[in-house]
């Protein structure tokens, strides 16, 4: 029931040329194209989306990026409203959105949309899994603010999608002994060393593991784990990859380490500010 849709651009199908009118116009057409593909599989991006990844070209002015997020939510709301009027509205998943800033896109597009859909059968009931008890990382004690770092979409104990954001504020909380004096700095990324990133990477794995356990998922059921980091972060890719590898190896319950990808980007996050220090995108499926 999972549909991994290829990235959709704002192309007119007859001519395969980009629409004119800028990023918002391209996004709208890309969403229309995504909806057309979804309908061919008897679902809709407005109700069946687990995760919507929106790639934004750095060519988009900063002042225009907020309009992209507004347009996405307005488009989905409009489809749901139309389906309700037609009596066709099915169960609605509480989808996640992830925005990624990149240097360029195919055909010099400004926006690309990549939906991940789960077609919920009308007979299914959307439920959450039962919690597991496991050791986890003892370096961290749960605090209320941890929940603000992560968004989740759990479906029927079968699908688990997580988007975790480590912001400048999160980094200051985690590395207070070093960064607290620079709390107001807008240049935290330049202050992060491998030592601080080691603690941040362990926190990411701790919190991802906690949410997986709460919903009865195991690391062996992970389909993909992507870690986005800004190229402005002065830590080599190999070093960052090793830090996450070591953090994952500390989980005693893990029988095999999941494959993960460290992806350098210009920016990423759950909003179009795309200013996270680290963004983790996880998808797990129980078969």
UniProtKB/TrEMBL annotation:
Gene3D superfamilies linked to this entry: RutC-like (3.30.1330.40)
Annotated InterPro entries: DPH6/MJ0570, RutC-like_sf
Superkingdom in the source lineage: Eukaryota
PANTHER family: DIPHTHINE--AMMONIA LIGASE, DOMAIN OF UNKNOWN FUNCTION 71 DUF71 -CONTAINING PROTEIN
Protein's name in the database: Uncharacterized protein
Annotated organism of origin: Eucalyptus grandis
């Amino acid at each position: 029931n999972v549909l991994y849709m290829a990235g959709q651009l704002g192309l007119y199908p007859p001519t395969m040329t980009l629409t004119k009118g800028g990023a918002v116009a391209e996004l709208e057409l890309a969403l229309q194209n995504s909806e057309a593909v979804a309908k061919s599989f008897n679902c809709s991006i407005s109700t069946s989306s687990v995760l919507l990844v929106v790639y934004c070209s750095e060519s988009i002015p900063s002042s225009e990026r907020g309009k992209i997020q507004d347009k996405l939510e307005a488009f989905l709301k409009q489809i749901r409203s139309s389906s309700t009027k037609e009596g066709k509205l099915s169960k609605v998943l509480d989808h996640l959105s992830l925005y990624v800033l990149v240097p360029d896109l195919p055909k010099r597009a400004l926006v690309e949309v990549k939906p991940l859909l789960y077609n919920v059968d009308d007979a299914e009931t959307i439920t959450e899994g039962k919690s597991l008890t496991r050791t986890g990382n003892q370096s961290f004690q749960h605090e209320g603010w941890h929940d603000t770092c992560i968004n989740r979409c759990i479906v029927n104990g079968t699908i688990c999608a997580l988007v975790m954001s480590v912001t400048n504020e999160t980094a200051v909380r985690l590395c207070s002994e070093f960064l607290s004096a620079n709390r107001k700095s807008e240049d935290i990324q330049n202050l992060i060393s491998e030592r601080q990133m080691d603690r941040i990477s362990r926190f990411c794995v701790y919190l991802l593991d906690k949410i997986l356990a709460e919903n009865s998922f195991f690391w062996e059921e992970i389909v993909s784990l992507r870690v986005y980091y800004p190229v402005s972060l002065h830590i080599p890719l190999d070093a960052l990859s090793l830090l996450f590898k070591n953090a994952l190896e500390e989980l005693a319950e893990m029988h095999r380490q999941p494959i993960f990808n460290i992806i350098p980007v210009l920016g990423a996050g759950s909003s179009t500010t795309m200013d996270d220090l680290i963004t983790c995108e996880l998808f797990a499926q129980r078969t």
